Amino acid sequence: MGKLLEPGASVPDLSLDDLSGGQVSLHTSEPVLLVFFKISCPVCQLTLPYLERVHPGRKIRGVSQNSAEDTREFAAEFEISFPILLDPEERFPASNAFGITHVPTLFLLDAAGRIEKVIEGWNRQEMDALGALRPGDNVPAWKAG
After folding, report:
1. Which helix (H) or strand (E) holds 75?
2. First to last CA, the chain
3. In sequence order, what are the residues at sequence separation of 6 or more whose Cβ sits closer than 8 angstroms to the Cβ of residue 86?
4. How far, in Å, CA of 134 to CA of 7, rounded?
5. Does the domain made of 29-132 have the CATH classification 3.40.30.10?
6. pLDDT per residue over 49-66, tens digit each?
7. Number of Cβ within a 10 Å radius of residue 131
8. How many CB atoms lie within 10 A of CB 75?
9. Are 106 and 127 within 8 A, CB to CB?
10. What are the DSSP E strand ranges found in 22-79?
11. What are phi and psi of 68, to 5 degrees?
12. For residue 101, what pLDDT band results from cuts at 50, 70 and 90?
């Protein structure tokens, strides 16, 4: 596993399976928020429903470190509708290429295929900047992933 990719780095040239079995490239021609997560992670369980609020206004792709079946159950339970890709549990090629050490880790990618911002864990200020929070949301300021 390498070092966590930082803003300015190029997005690794990878394709992952989505929940329907199709292949999706991590390179896009528009800004996208990649969200690496694990279904058993309490901070992921906190974060993903808030990110659902900004979808479809912002292109979001989840990257699950779990099986397709478990990921489908998670998405149904937490009412996640944005596309989710699968980072195969045997070797975690995307997580390793991005240097993920814990989840959730979010990467805001620009249209040129570069990392614009990295968010590790839960950060209320960053979630608010993404438009995920509403007045009256009683959420912690920060939680490690």
Report:
1. helix 68-77
2. 18
3. 16, 17, 18, 19, 63, 64, 66, 67, 68, 71
4. 27
5. yes
6. 999 999 988 999 999 999
7. 13
8. 20
9. no
10. 23-25, 32-37, 60-64
11. -60, -45
12. very high
Q: What is the pLDDT of residue 56?
A: 81
* Side chain identity, residue 127: M
Name the residue with tokens 């290429």: 97
Backbone angles phi, psi at 143, to 5 degrees: -145, 130
Q: Which helix (H) or strand (E) holds 66?
A: none
Q: What is the pLDDT of residues 22-58, one digit of tens each?
A: 999 998 889 999 999 999 999 999 999 999 999 988 9
- Structure confidence at residue 1 as a pLDDT band (50, 70, 90): low
- CA–CA distance, 96 with 77 (Å, rounded to integer): 27
Between strands 60-64 and 84-86, the pairing is: parallel
Calpha distance 75→86 (Å, rounded): 13
Q: 């979010």: which residue's tokens? A: 106
Domain boundaries, the chain: 29-132
* Percent residues over pLDDT 90 in the chain: 92
Rounded CA-CA distance 54/82 in Å is: 10
